[in-house]
Amino acid sequence: MNKTIPALISFLAVMLLAASQATTTTTELPAATVDGTGPGWRSLGAEDFVNVNCHDDTWAWDGDSVKCTGNPIGVTRSVEPYTNFEMVCEWRHMRDAGNSGIFLWSPIESMDRLKGPGLPEGIEVQVLDLGYKAAYEKGGNPANWFTCHGDVFPVGGSTMKPFPPTAPNGRRSFPTENRSKGVGEWNHYYIRAINGEVRLWVNGAEVSGGSDCSPATGYLALESEGSPVEFRNLRIRVLP
User: Fold this and answer.
1) Quick check: 123 and 216 in contact, CB under 8 A?
2) What is the pTM of this model?
3) Tell me, what's the pLDDT at 139?
């Protein structure tokens, strides 16, 4: 037998193994390198939030994790206002087409105006299940003004210069990659908010954000918007 045949077979086996490993590496979504540990980081729990316009049982805390029923539409806000900070959390929707969000720099005045169901002003980091797009399009309208992968946008009278790509109306920053995972699966967010600029990392990669935010100081808020959602490993580090 030709002596080169065994060597050729070995070479092909190595190449196939390498190709298989490369495929695995490119399809997995790695966790963000910023995991909320180290100097200055601390957990956020029930003692760090106060109910604004939800029911007493809308939010159920367990350490740095919280379950939300989704009813009514409203928020729980941070006890303290924040200006420059970074935070991490994981979230998952428990029902198809679920909707939620994380508000940054929300003014207390907009919170105080919420006497019934509703949402405050501020900069919202969208927390949307992948099924929301299909559910929206069932009504016959194109889902071209939002995505399910980490939009960042101002709410109400708040303003922001969104990073491209942007929504057709120019207000939302659309993600540069589709990295969110579906209903029942945990997603990882790393948010950095400094000097009026917001940047969002979804499952390990920076995807969206904006600058020139107004306001650029205020309260954090977790959003209840009609569907059960869970957050865990909520952690924050205040920056100068």
Assistant:
1) no
2) 0.86
3) 87
Are 149 and 156 in contact by the 8 Å Cβ rule? The answer is no
What is the model's pLDDT at position 18? 46
Q: What parts of the chain have a pLDDT lower than 70?
A: 1-32
Cα–Cα distance between 171 and 140 in angstroms, integer? 23
- Residue 166 forms beta bridges with which residues? 173
The one-letter amino acid code at 198 reads V
Give the pLDDT of residue 4. Answer: 46
Domains of the chain: residue spans and CATH: 30-238 (2.60.120.560)
How much is the pLDDT for 210?
98
AA identity, residue 115: K
Q: Contact 123/103 with Cβ under 8 angstroms?
A: yes
Alpha carbons 139 and 142: distance in angstroms, whole number? 9
3-state helix, strand, coil in the chain (%, to 5): 15, 40, 45
For the chain, how big is the Rg over CA atoms in Å?
21
Q: How many helices (H) and strands (E) does the chain have?
A: 3, 15
Sole residue written with tokens 């601390």: 42
